[in-house]
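Annotators were shown the component list below and the corresponding predicted structure, then asked to write short factual statements about the assembly.
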Amino acid sequence: MSSPLADEPVEPAGDDAEPLDGDECADYLDELGDAWEVVDDHHLEASYEFPDFETALAFTNDVGALAEEEWHHPDISLSWGEVGVEMWSHEVGGLTEADFVMAARMDRLYADAGE
Amino acid sequence: MSSPLADEPVEPAGDDAEPLDGDECADYLDELGDAWEVVDDHHLEASYEFPDFETALAFTNDVGALAEEEWHHPDISLSWGEVGVEMWSHEVGGLTEADFVMAARMDRLYADAGE
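Structure shown to annotators:
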């Protein structure tokens, strides 16, 4: 059960693009899992829960591999039983569709990790 | 160039131990690399720098493997070119020698990663 957004390409918006506004962010957020929230119409934050440190570290690697593949790098916080993610498009100083596609991909990785 | 502390065992202080006081923390801190600081005589924080995301992720895995091996788990923050570490001994609500030994081991892992 992951959003169709996860199947979209991660396309950089370009340096002269405008970040998404609040209404646009809200519409995209509706397509993500409960882990995610939009903060200050500026960035995305997620918290994913795990049963222990090892599984949280494995997910960190999944997210890291995705970040390298798509060349779109979030900040990740790893602690016992939890992985936090913070992400935005630095080139526009806010959120773009690429961030929401990345988020949907992480939701899918999380669902896969739990199977 | 790593501290002899890194060769000490990571021994849990036990639930009834007292956390190290400010002077004791300062003495141990002298044995660590520049990445580390003691915050509020309560926990250790470090920031390690890297040339990119991939090497930072690799170090996160090194620290994660150490944490699992010694069963002493820090909080780790991973971003492009930087890994942050925050650590204390939860069972005593502060710092113990085990935290400083772990910190010295991370300094050694960092030195090894740069070779």
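Statements collected:
1. Chain B has three helices and four strands.
2. Chain B has one domain: 19-112.
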